[in-house]
Amino acid sequence: MLDVRNLRVEYRTAGAPYVAVHDESFAVRAGEFFTLLGPSGCGKTTTLRSVAGLETPTAGRIEIDGVPVFDGATGRAVPTHAREIAMVFQSYAIWPHMTVFENVAFPLRVKRLPGAALRRQVDEVLQMVGLGDFAERPATMLSGGQQQRVALARAIVKDAKVLLLDEPLSNLDAKLREQMRRELRRLQKHVGTTSIYVTHDQDEALSLSDRIAVMRGGRIVELGRPLDLYLRPRHTFTARFVGQAELAPCKVVQAGADAVLVETKLGRFRARVNADIGARANHLMVRPEHVVFADADADADDGTGENMLEGQIANILFSGKLVEYEVQTGQGVVSVCAASNVLRTLGEAVRLHLPPEHCVLLTDGEGGGSLGDIPGGDAAPAGPGNRRTA
Amino acid sequence: MSASTDTARTRLALVLGRWMPFAMLGLMLTWLVVVPLVILLVGSFSVTGLPVDFFTRGFTLDNYIQTYSDPFFWRMAWTTTVFAVCSALGSLTLGIILAWLVERTDLPARGLVRVLIILPLATPPVLLAIGWIMLLSPRTGFFNQLLQSGLGLSAAPFNIYSLTGMIFVDMLALVPSTFLILSPAFRNMDPNLEEAAMTSGARFHTMIWRVVLPLLLPAILAAGGFLLIVGFLVFDIPGAIGMPVGIFVLSTRVVYLATDAPTGMAEYGLIASMAIFFLVVLLLIAFGYQRATRRAARFVTVTGKGFRIRPFALKRWRWVAFGFVALYFTLVTIAPMGILIWASLMPWFAQPSWDMLQHVTLANHLDFFNNRRAVRAAQNSITISVISATAVAVISIIISWVVVRSNAVGRRVLDALAFLPIAIPGVMIGVALIFVYLTFDLLPIYGTIWIIVIAYVTNYISFGTRASNGVMVQLHSDLEEAAMTSGARWGRLMRSIIIPLTLPALVAVWIWVLAICMRELTSALLLQGRGNTTVPVLLWGYWTGGQPNRAAAVGVWLVVAMLFVIGLWQFMAQRSRLSGVRE
Q1: Same domain, yes or no, for A208 and A337?
Q2: CATH 1.10.3720.10 fits B358-583, yes or no
Q3: In chain B, at which end, N or C, are there fewer CB atoms within 10 A of the end residue's CB?
Q4: Cβ of A86 under 8 Å from any chain B Cβ?
């Protein structure tokens, strides 16, 4: 449905041009909910605006439903109003001089839809977003959540091939965001429009998307299903940016077909996830909630001492559903997340087990070619992934 | 159609789209702003001062030598500087006090006070000067005579015909503008910033010195720069007060040389060489002004978050402060307007007294409505003001859109060209336009209302574009882009989104330009011909021609018209703030 090939966006600055998007390629399937996820300045919004035609790329090619809308080679650039897209802005961009109805009706008025059909379609969409009774309200007399719905309705009513959403939930408070997230997902499934969603919020990305492209410094680092990106990330950046991760630099001791033995400062570990990376692996990762306390799991200790750690509970963060323990081991601190059914006390001596089937091998740059070759001068965001552990 | 011609056409359209706005608007601004200045410059190097002679009779420096070797010129430049600096400082002080009282304290009747402060905008400066001459003239001034007889003084205590007198009246005349520039800065300052200083342990005076003043400094500097420019170029007040007794400032000297030169011929050579000095000084101030305002923009603390201002409690000083405001209003409106109304009702010039009440007559007022010249002047004023205001508003919004929103080539040049006229006084525009239209016979508009329209459009385009730039910047670009992603083309975008959203502000600009065009004297005076007399020029003619009572009557009706327009302006400004372009 949407095909982006070798997209490159540069901004002219006083010195060397600033490259906002490096040669970026991806394809979005019809009906898919596709998310561009990354820290601010990673080029995700620039990519979206290039698709909308609000930004003119330097090179590359963008096709919407088989129709080229931008082609750097021929200089073809279809103006925004003629593209098969609809967009929801971060600021909502509700026109303050129009009523709710007029705001939503605008795309249809531009299409010169006759009055009765227009009325029916607008009403239908307003019902869909739960604003049926608000049609005649001035748009400025709405709460943040309601403005958000108007913006969404205005985009849906256009019935374009691709729906573009630029951080639409970031201006809402936490509770409302949660609610709108569910609603957005429901609406998208209902309408079935191909959607491109931009966000820096990994929870939003994981819960909404069919697929996610993780971006950093103008490049796609990794692209995949939410499940895969969380459980089987291949890059340290993805591991850190999507969810909480315990990472340790490692050296491969012995690489096998379905398991790799690595040496870290915490000890020796056997890892089964991403075993195909083999000798190139340079980081070991485990999610805090996948670490188990050995005393709570009978099969944890197989007697070899492999994948085992000993330490004391140094800090406890209680958040209701989960409890996060910081365990001080001889070589460093390891975070462990556990359900709140068994509570441990500060200073308690514990043994930890890192199950091999949850130990993930990562590379930070090699192979994928996405991270290692970012030049030093590039304005890569100061995200957690930038901390190189030698 | 093959793909390659299609592409070539797109490319051509893109290039044209980027160049066209600059070409069209640039050409217009060049004609309005650059050509007069160049002609003026050329004229200053020509024997007679007329540019034509530069091409036929060659280059000369005589004008410069004659102007700048004359000690009288340097004394005059000094007088001008003293006049400009002192009246700017005076009105800045008054403006700061009034803005603080109205915006940040519990002054009684603040709404009314705000109106009282802005109201004097309706009085053209020349009228204010005439009013104060009637009050403080050493021989016939009403206040002087009251004080003299009341205190038994042998001589009049005040003499309005002095540099001090000029500064006093100019200071009063500038206070409303100062207040209008400063009060948003006082109003928009987030009280959290003050409270943060206080919770950090700062005492009141530390807070004022370390937090409040530094935050307001850019706005104060901007106001100061504006006042300095106005002080350097104002003609009306020094013209009415100083010129009759030979106290000249640059602007009055230029008008004097153009209309009243001892040789009987306008001294265009001297005028042009003097005008260049003017231009240099004013450009320097304008440059400083623009830098100050740019910094001011960076300081803007409008967060969009609503905040409630906790007014400073004046306690027992409340009524003292109110008295101060009342005194100001008396000095700037009640006293001068009172004497003008009185004079307009008198058959000859006489002091207010019970005896004279029996002579009250409406003859002067009836004359204004029946006299053909007066009616013609009123028609001219209205026509000129409406056309100029409309042109300024339309041109400004287009220039602003190109400057702020488009990616057109040369948009910064356009912005600078549109800003330049702020440094060109009405006197100079007047002189320059005489030069242009005496030199080129292309447009036979010399002596018609159209030459005045051109002068006004040139003069007020800087104000118009500053105002519309501000509105355009406030208008979040998402609102436009949302229309584009909804499928709207440029025309639709302008019609449905940009114009409706900027209309209230645009109307406010329109009315404001209308108001200043109606009261403008200098350019109109210099450019007057047989058929283009405006109301202020008529008034000036009566006054300098020894008919103060008729002048007063014309003045009263001019103020009435101005009050109406200013009321409308405030109303629209209020509405545009209410319908506020929110993000």
Answers
A1: no
A2: yes
A3: N
A4: yes
A261 exposure class (CB count in 10 Å sphere: 0-12, 13-18, 19+)? middle
CA-nearest residue to B576 within chain A is A97
Q: Chain A residues with CB inside 8 Å of B581's CB?
A: 96
Residue-number span of the structural domain to which A82 is assigned: 2-227
> What's the structural domain count of chain A?
2
Buried b (16+ CB within 10 A) or exposed e, B458-470: bbbbbbbbbbbbe
Amino acid at B378: A
Of B484, B581, B582, the CB nearest to A80: B484
Instruction: Using an 8 Å CB-CB cutoff, list chain B residues near A53.
Output: 484
- Bridge-based pairing of strands A18-28 and A251-255 is unpaired
Give the CA dihedral B12, B15, B21, B24, nearest 10 degrees: -60
Q: What CA–CA distance (Å, rounded) separates A156 from A158?
A: 5
| DSSP 3-state percent helix, strand, coil across chain B (nearest 5) | 80, 0, 20
Structure token pair of residue A100? 């709710």
Note whether B479 contacts A77, CB cutoff 8 Å.
no
Q: Domains of chain B: which residue ranges?
A: 83-247+299-344, 358-583
Is residue B459 within 8 Å of B431, Cβ to Cβ?
Answer: no
Report whether B581 contacts B501 (CB < 8 A): yes
Largest CA distance in chain A: 78
Q: How many CA atoms lie within 13 A of B459 on its CB side?
A: 29
Alpha-carbon A218 to chain mean position: 14
Ramachandran angles phi, psi of A30, nearest 5°: -60, 135
Q: Which residue of A has its CA nearest to B12?
A: A75
Q: What is the pLDDT of residue B129?
A: 92
CB distance B468 to B502 below 8 Å? yes
Is A233 part of any domain? no
The topology under which CATH files domain B83-247+299-344 is MetI-like fold (1.10.3720)
Euclidean distance between CA atoms B34 and B40, whole angstroms:
10
Q: What is the pLDDT of residues A282-333, one digit of tens each?
A: 899 999 999 988 876 666 566 666 788 889 999 999 988 889 999 998 878 8
**DSSP-assigned beta bridge partners for residue A328:** A312, A333
Q: Which residues of B touch A85 (CB under 8 A)?
A: 485
Q: Which amino acid is present at B218?
A: P
Chain A residue whose CA is closest to B499: A97
Q: Kindly state whether residue A235 falls inside one of the protein's structural domains.
A: no
- The pLDDT-based confidence of B16 (bands split at 50, 70, 90) is low
**CA distance, residue A34 to nearest chain B CA (Å):** 19
pLDDT in tens, A82-127: 899 999 988 888 887 788 998 899 989 888 889 899 999 999 999 9
The most distant pair of C-alpha atoms in chain B lies apart, rounded to whole Å, by 99
pLDDT of res. A67: 92
What is the chain B residue with the closest CA to A55?
Answer: B481
Q: Is residue B425 a contact partner of residue B84, using CB atoms and an 8 Å limit?
A: no
